[in-house]
Write a structure and sequence with these properties.
The chain is of the alpha/beta class and 338 residues long. Helices cover 43% and strands 15% of the residues. The strands form 3 sheets. Strands 3-4-12-9-10-11 form a 6-stranded mixed beta sheet. Helix 9 (230-244) links the parallel strand 10 and strand 11. The radius of gyration is 19 Å and the shape is globular.
């Protein structure tokens, strides 16, 4: 199957996700944040279906097509202990009859919880890398690929989060999908001014959205503490993705909130807990403590600090991540009701 890029070129993809994902109003949460009815929307990319859903299913459609075209037999990637990308890559490999090796930037621990339970269930080869930083994890992915080549395998290496140009192209298509939904929901003029709020891990989703929407001012990324150089990487990746899609280089300045990740990747914060509670108790919307909870904390802060254009729609991109709620690190934190 192929998917069109804006210039009419065709990019091959393998169908893995349930698309299009719903666009839902969030008026009760919006009212709590001082937003008018019809302003706050939630793009439900947690509903993509692959092994529990999440935004990575879109990227894996493109990445796996490239892997198959290259004759690869093993998908190789990595991430943090509660990586959603790792979980979904293992599932995609199983759907396509490929092997999968994943690097987790952690030690094994006493027992698996959260996403790691699913990593075991899906049968991926787990490589425990210890306390690796972002680029240490990237190096470990490369080393895993080299080892597999030495064993006569044909690995396809994916960066953390699938944040290659190929992966980010999926969010050029997602931007077009979202804009079509917004035009139907709020009208053409308002849709053209909508701002999307998204968790920034590796930055590929942010870059793809900016390339598709054409303006850095239309995407607010919320840094979750994964990558140290997002402010340099997101604009560079957005420009490269736009070029690959036949689109103009996006205008404006990159928008990243770097104040929400607390002590680091995956660290619980009071603002994240408030965001989880607001979404759950006002909208029945389940977020996670690693990615979407911190992204929602960024949206909450932007609304309270009057940094949002309240005359334009605000779209929260729900990228999934529910399994992390069941990790031992967070379970007691969640059950201690504030």
């Amino acid at each position: 199957m192929t998917a069109p890029t804006p210039d009419g070129a065709r990019v091959r993809r393998v169908p893995l996700a349930h698309l299009p994902t719903p666009l839902e109003p969030g008026d009760r949460l919006g009212a709590a944040l001082g937003l008018r009815p019809g302003t706050l929307w939630v793009k439900r990319d947690d509903c993509t279906g692959l092994a529990g859903g999440g935004n990575k299913a879109r990227k894996l459609e493109y990445l796996c097509a490239e892997a198959l075209d290259q004759g690869c037999d093993t998908l190789v990637t990595g991430g943090g202990r509660q990586s959603n990308h790792v979980r979904m890559t293992a599932a995609a490999a199983n759907r396509l009859g490929l092997a999968c090796t994943v690097v987790l930037a952690s030690d094994p621990g006493l027992r698996p919880t959260g996403n790691v339970v699913l990593d075991h269930l899906l049968g991926a080869e787990l490589v425990w890398g210890g306390d690796l930083d972002y680029y240490g994890t990237e190096a470990a992915i490369d080393a895993a690929c080299e080892r597999l080549r030495g064993e006569g395998r044909h690995p396809y290496g994916m960066p953390v989060g699938g944040a290659s140009i190929t992966g980010a192209l999926a969010y050029v298509a997602a931007a077009a999908e979202l804009e079509a939904q917004l035009r139907e929901a709020v009208g053409t003029g308002a849709a053209a001014r909508a701002v999307v709020v998204v968790a920034d891990g590796s930055g590929g989703t942010h870059a793809g959205l900016v390339a598709g929407l054409g303006d850095h001012g239309r995407v607010l990324g919320v840094d979750v503490g994964t990558r140290p150089d997002l402010l340099e990487q997101v604009p560079a990746k957005a420009a490269a993705v736009a070029e690959a899609a036949g689109l103009p280089v996006p205008g404006g300045g990159c928008q990243i909130d770097g104040d929400r990740f607390g002590d680091g990747y995956g660290a619980p914060t009071h603002a994240c807990r408030e965001a989880l509670d607001l979404a759950a108790r006002l909208e029945g919307l389940v977020l996670d403590p690693v990615y979407t909870g911190k992204a929602m904390a960024g949206l909450v802060a932007a609304a309270r600090e009057h940094r949002l254009d309240v005359s334009a729609p605000v779209v929260f991109l729900h990228t999934g991540g529910m399994p992390a709620l069941f990790a031992s690190r967070y379970a007691s934190w969640i059950t201690q009701r504030p």
